[in-house]
Every structure is written in structure tokens, then in C-alpha cells.
Amino acid sequence: MGRYPDIRHVREIKTESLLENNVLFITMCSCRYDTAENANIPTIRKLGELRKAYTHGDYTVSAHKSFFNGRLPVVMDDPKLPFYSEAVSQLWRINSGRPHEADKKRFPIILKENNIIEGYRKLGYKIVGIGGVSQFNHGSILRSYFNKGEFSYYGTDMTEEPLEPRQKEQFPFNHLDNLLKTIHNYDRWFLFINCSETHYPYDIGDGLPDDVLRYFDDIKLKLNLRDNKDEKTNAEINKEKNMDSKLHSLQARALESIDRGIKKLLYNLPHNREILTVICGDHGENFGEIFAGKQRWGHLFPSKEVMEVPLVIGQMYWR
Ligand SMILES: [Zn+2]
């Protein structure tokens, strides 16, 4: 086992050398803020201050298009910190024109291309992507940010995940050896990991409780934008089975599994450069809360629970 890194939080990050940093960018699908707040995630918490941020998209594609455009989820509450709140400074800035002198302070990493992945690629960084949910499957819009050979996809072939338990091999952190082999071969790298554990059905490859599984037959009719006309209301079902808290706890357990995966990764990262680290939910999730007059499940609508995501930014270094 390798050495564990030391961490700088954003107030201590040396912004002038950020462009020399390798990058670890982790998105956790459907992970809403209060899941992170309540889960036992010591590694993620150590990597920077855990803050509630507002994302720019209510589903995977719109959220990631925004991130790859340099717009991370944004913290609106005080205290406002660099990179967490655009009002203070923006970490990644896509600049199609000429950067003004004054911009250089607010935007430590100004990339000339029209997305951050292409920007880092042009600077000579090896791009490594791994995931994830099916929006990163072959031929998808989000995969088009990655060149051939840059992304390893381990999810299902479907355009939308079925509500059935997944296999362990479908999760990126179960492929760490391959990933580490690749980045150890390069001096500079930009590593993007899309975690699917926190996406429904919130399992981590070891099955789901029977009562939750049975409920998925019903949730299929109501998930995301589906509008089931069945008289048996969500509220009745939820009251009966306490499904909101059961599913929310499953998402917390899934996040804890991601946290253990990140810990394993940290022990084995190359030490040649400091590593800029960004971890966030892409969008959140509803577990039966009321939005627009109805109980809602899943995402794809701009409810409070879908728009509030965890955000952690820091810098790893080795003494
Ligand atoms: Zn997502």
C-alpha cells in the first residue's frame, strides 16, 4: 500500500501552480446533498470542505455538459470560498476570446478550447475517463468529449438503467488496477470518474432487500417524468412501506462504498505532481418529496432535492 496524501483546502491552495496539477474529477450520479451530509464518508470529507451546491442540470447529460464547460455546481451560502462560488472565483474557465489581465486572478485555469477535457488534452494531459451510468455508454453525447481509448465504460448497455440490482464489475472502483496502471504511465493526467453506485437502484453489486425490490415494480411507473394515473397514490405506498427513508439510506450506503473506493485510490496515486481534486453530485434525487403538486421519485425535474448536490474541492500533495 502506498502513502496517503496530505490535503490543502481551497483557502490554502496555491493558485499560481494549479495548471501544473494533475486532476481527479469525480461525479456521483444522483447523489443529493443531504445524503452526503448524513453518510459516513471520512475520505471525501478529508479532501476538502463538504458544501451544499446548486447544480446546473437536473439529469446526467445537462449537468455534465455544464461541468465540462467549466461550470461546476455553485455554493450560494456564506461563507463563499474560492472555486465553490463563482462570485469569488471560477476554477475552470473556457475562454474563446483573449483573457483580460484581471481575469487571471478570478480564473486560475483558463482553457482555450471549448470544453475542459479538450483544454487539458491540448495542454498535453493524458485524458482518462471511467464510468459509469449509461449516459457514458458508447455513442452518447457525453462520450463524445472523450477520444477513442480515453474512456472505459463498465455500465449496462441500456439507455436507461433498469431497476434491477447490478453486478460488482459494473462499478468503476472495481477496476482500479487498470486505471492506476494507465495513469502511472503518464506525467500529466486528467482523471474523470463517474460513479453509478448512488444512481437508482442504489445497490453496490451485492443485491437489494426484497421489500425494496418489490417496490421497484411500482416505482417504475412513477420514476422521473412518468406520470402514473393509477389511483393507488405514491403517498399510500410510501406510508405503508416507509420507502422514502429506505431508498435514502440505500443511497447513503452506496456513497459510503464510493468513499471506500476513493480511499483505495488515494493510497495508490502517483506522487509526481500535486493533484487538484473535485468531487460532486451531478444532480440529486427525489425520494417521494412533493414537487409541482405531486410526490416525486428519481430526477429529471428541478426540485430542491434534485438541484442540491455535495461539492468538495481540494488539492492533494505528498511531503
Ligand atoms: Zn446523473
Explain this structure:
The protein is built from 10 helices and 12 strands. It has 319 residues and is an alpha/beta fold. The strands form 3 sheets. Strands 1, 2, 3, 6, 7, 8, 9 and 12 form an 8-stranded mixed sheet that branches. Strands 4-5 form a two-stranded parallel sheet. The longest helix is centred in the last third of the chain and has 25 residues, at 243-267. The mean pLDDT is 91. It binds zinc ion. Zinc ion binds next to loops.
Q: What attributes does this structure have?
A:
single chain; 319 residues; alpha/beta; Alkaline Phosphatase, subunit A; 8-stranded mixed beta sheet; two-stranded parallel sheet; 10 helices; 12 strands; binds zinc ion
Named CATH topology: Alkaline Phosphatase, subunit A
Name the overall outline.
Answer: globular
Number of DSSP strand runs: 12
Oligomeric status of the shown chains?
single chain
- Measured as a percent range, the helix fraction is 25-40%
Q: Would you tell me the overall average pLDDT?
A: 91
What does the largest sheet look like?
8 strands, mixed
How many helices? The count is 10
In the residues, how many domains can be counted?
Answer: 1
Tell me which CATH architecture applies here: 3-Layer(aba) Sandwich
CATH class: Alpha Beta
